Amino acid sequence: MDAQYDPRVASLKVSEEVRSEVDGTVHARRKHAGIAVAGDTWGLALSGGGIRSATFCLGLVRGLAKNGLLKRFDYLSTVSGGGYLGSSLGRLYCEKTTAAEVEAGVARDDSMWLWWLRNNGRYLTPAGAKDLGYATASILRGIVSTHLEIAVLILAAALLVLLPHVLVALFPPLRDDTWWNYDLVSVMPSVWGWLLVLPVWGCVHQVCAYWYTRDDPSRTSTALITLAAVIGSSLFWVALQTARQASGANMALYGILAILATGPVTAWFSSVAQRIKGRSAGAQRLMRTKRLSYCLWAIAIGIGLLLLDWCTWQLTRLYWGDDLTGLQYKISATVLILVAAARVLVPELQRWMATTKGRSLNLEKLLNVVGIALSVLLAVVWTTVLNAVLFPATERETYWQLTWSGLVAIWPVTTFTVVLVACAVYLVTTRRSFDLLNLASLHNFYRARIERAYVSSGNSGAEGSRFPASALGAVDPAWTSRVAPLTEAIAGDDVDLAAYRPHDHGGPIHLINCCINQSVDDRTGLYNADRKGVALAVSGLGVEIGTRLPEEAAIGPTGTVSQWVAISGAAASTGMGSRTSPGLAALLFMSGVRLGYWTPALDTGQRGSDVGEKKEASAPSRRPSRLLRWAPKPLAIVAESIARFPGLFSPVWYVSDGGHFDNTGIYALLKRRVRVIVAADCGADPNYLFGDLESLVRKAKIDYGATIEFVETGKVSLLGNLSDVVGTPETIGPEAGSRWLVIGRIAYADGTEGVLLVVKPRRLDKMPFDMVAYADRHPDYPQQTTGDQFFDEAQWESYHQLGLLMGERLTAHSIKRAAGISGAAAIGSSLQEAEKQAVRTENTVSRRERVGMTVRASVGAGLSLSVLVAAWQGIEQFRESRRADERRYEALTLELMQKVREQPIASLYKQQFEQFAKESDARGDDRFDALRDRLNARCEEATSAQDKQACLSLHRSLSADPVPPPPFYDYWFADKHARLIEARTATTVVAHPDSPPVPPPTFPLPWPPATNASTSGRIDHYSILASTSRNLLAVTEPAVAPVPIATAAPCAEKARVFIHVYDEESRTPATQLAMALQEAVGVSRTPIENVVTTAQRTGGRTPYVWSSPAIVTNTGTSDACIARARSAFAIEVRVQKIGYGVPDTIEIWIPPRTTEAIAVTKAP
């Protein structure tokens, strides 16, 4: 085979190839059939259409046999349902039976073959409880295995999505001035947000480089280009300097701007480099355009990963992060919401569908959207599960010291590694197991039924056969009881396709038509928006791809007859030719309802690796082919899930229903330039638009250069007895009539002509009583849906008899007259004319149409109005609830203000203010601060001991640490900050030159610590505090002589002060110290943390216990700031400077007030 050929383009040697096949195979077939060797070639095409087509074609074939025409056909081309009947007919030809005997047996009304098909060829879908059980088991088995494969691939992809987040968990950002600080990175909702900067920069670079490219650069353009590069450099420098001085969101904004500003500069260098290489301007622009498209794709993928990462983290917080005990309630609430929404929407959808004609509702597009939504939902669910496993609530605050020996103890690392290894092992060990994919589909279930119901007709005569005698004989009650039942699989029911050669015994050459799905153009790598498939025909002669005939270089057909007939009828597949869509493919793949089949490429003469290495044209396909050869199964799963099939130049093909390329079966006959073609057009066509025939006419003109024109109804007098049944695609409609035959004249590219007789199933105006009665009960007869694969007796007989009536009208004389037409005027087939005819036909039911349109308009307007009214009511209710809440809050504020102003201090208690404090904090107002100031004012005026004691009690209650909030599961792991600071504080401390050396803390610590405690063990904390100008609540405490605040320069604006205590008794003096520090250092707030309580809550170890007050700060903190902090103390405090941490962050450590209260801090 020529290594350079494209099978989608007709060969220049087609005439020689056709002549060779006719002179060899066709003439030999005619000798076996006992007919004249010379003469025109005849072909019979049986179209797709499931059981409907198989049953109608049975009648048509029997009618031709009754007229002695069956043995005249050289070719039998079948698709889908036509293949059921075709394979059953082909199996009847064997060495023991002549072609004449087969023709006579098929024509008989009492043959065993007809009896068998009448009883067992009526259904392919389950019937009965036992049969339904088998089908359910097959579907469930396929769904489970399919979702196992999907889960492994999604988990593998989810590992990639969550890998950056795992690294963040191991290296959480701190609140410092480095580039890896919390205020900066938390601007983005996900790590992928920062990674998006790279492809955005790539877009800027490629756009500028494209603009810089000139065919003949002038001085002006060169100056402008240089100016753009200079401006980019300046903008980079300004943005970088601004980013260094900014913080938080501003730092992120200017940092990103600085990165993007380098794009014009790097583009200038790249353009100069390309010009030096001598690459032309056109080649540069093409390169820039391609790379820009890659960057845009990277941005789209990055946004998808960002949304997936962010959404799954929010779901993790919702269901796992806050409260595990409430998980079941959350899931139940979600289910109830979905059920309620379905309860409202489904009836409206049903009502709309019931009042909408079929063409008004594009069901395929709807299913496509549903499939995409389910795919996204599945990815979100599995990624959320992995998120929850990697980051459980118990590890929220854990900070890990990274060492090689300690990696095993780090939960995210261990879990990530286990999942990664498990997925990798499964994918690698099963990467070539294509059988798993085919076994997970319904192919084998479908194939087994075709095998037993149709293909088994030739299994007769031998011991243990299904039929004890030839199926062509008369029905004998003595023999029928000995026929094996349909539910049993009998050896010999099926045969290898290579051994299936009915033409060797006088039968026709049976061409089984399939489709190679190809949604990606192998020549450009772009999306194939048109056919999305290539024709494939298999037979005893070999494999035919596209426009080519079988050749010796091609691999012989593997598999069995039933396997390829099942593939030819695989209508419900993830790949459906021109109707392929990603959402529908995903929906079918996830549901397990798919019939397509994966097979190795059947044409190594063209697709082999040697050819790929030799010719440059196939170079784009070598890279995916190598990957497919190494791991075909995972990539095949991805291809099915997103409907991206590589097609011809792939080492594996996804083949499906021949109707996905050509549903008529005529395409394979046109390539052979057959002189006489009789075709049954049984595709579902309730409006008689002749869509399959229209597609064939177009493909014939494009692929073969052949034109097909149809004879006008007014010019059929030359057709003799067919004159009253001949019509055109424009005149045959869904109403009852007498015209059902379309005759077309074929003009081949080599100047030869042929005739096409298309038999269209239609309700006739004259039919037997039983057929009329059935048609009256079923107005859609004979165009009932292909989804109906279970025919009852009346339905089966009605289709069979209709085909028989039409087949009997086709005689040798009438076909000869049709083939001899030369002077009849012809018209071109037009889908628009067919649609006009359909509209004219539907005028007979125009009133019903108008009623339907009125109902649809009313329902649509009513539904829209209901939605608007509901939305308006919801907004008004929300506004009213907000107003009511504001009124309640105002009343509560006034009530508490009045209590503080009028009621005795002793009658006030904590619970009156606690909820108000929380609500004020949530609203972000200062009403609680105003209330507290008023309470402080009253306490300062208190004179009685009872009021002073009440003030002290309120002060302690309102100043105590609140109950720690539940884990908020911050994406950037802010919960780990406290643990990270503790881990760093516990390391070596660098002493300040003014302070005595302090050894690093060791465990167990010396106990009790050296303190200035009295003999009772009590430490007088108030002796260490300087006086302050205000108190949170006035309390009676020992007065301390004031110490002047240092007059040094103020601290930096971003200075922070934290106070750490070991017991709650230390909190009151710590609060006063905090106010003093706020005045001295100039900070707005000074958090106080009980490190013992925190250690108990998190299960951690208590930090080092200081024996005297200490200031711990970074070496970068200014001495002036430290002096201001020391001025808040009434005593000399130790200052410890450490070589890490955040500059201008000061930690105040206050020793425990009583030694007995902190026994829990002792090291074990």
UniProtKB/TrEMBL annotation:
GO terms for biological process: glycerophospholipid catabolic process. It comes from Rhodanobacter denitrificans. One of its GO terms (molecular function) is phospholipase A2 activity. Residues 605-624 are annotated as: Disordered. SUPFAM superfamilies: FabD/lysophospholipase-like. This is PNPLA domain-containing protein. InterPro entries: Acyl_Trfase/lysoPLipase (IPR016035), PNPLA_dom (IPR002641). Keywords: Lipid metabolism, Membrane, Transmembrane, Transmembrane helix. Pfam families: Patatin. PANTHER family: CYTOSOLIC PHOSPHOLIPASE A2, PATATIN FAMILY PROTEIN. GO terms for cellular component: cytosol. The chain crosses the membrane at residues 150-171, 191-212, 224-240, 252-273, 294-315, 327-346, 366-390, 402-428, 857-875. Residues 44-143 form the PNPLA domain.
